Amino acid sequence: MMKKIEIMNGPNLNLTGIRQPEIYGSETMEEGANIAGFMRVAKAMMAQGII
């Protein structure tokens, strides 16, 4: 089952993971970028039948 991820883009991303973590979570922008990069690689590998 694929999980849905959302990519944010906009001002104040330097506050991601710091500002109101009880609402927005504690994941930093760097962690989000790492997850997005991993998903890109995984999708490409799936398309090529590697995984």
Topology:
Elements: H1 21-24, H2 29-47
Written account of the structure:
It is a single chain. Helix content is 45%, strand content 0%. It is mainly α.
Low-confidence stretches at least 5 residues in length (pLDDT < 50)?
Answer: none
Work out the helicity level: 40-55%
Radius of gyration: 14 Å
Integer average pLDDT:
77
SS content category: mainly alpha
Number of strands: 0
Order of helices and strands: HH
Strand content: under 5%
Shape: elongated
How many helix segments?
A: 2
State the distance separating the first and last CA atoms: 14 Å
Question: What kind of sheet is the major sheet?
Answer: none
Salient structural properties:
mainly alpha; 51 residues
Q: Summary?
A:
By secondary structure, the chain is an all-alpha fold. Helix content is 45%, strand content 0%. The model has no long low-confidence stretch (mean pLDDT 77).
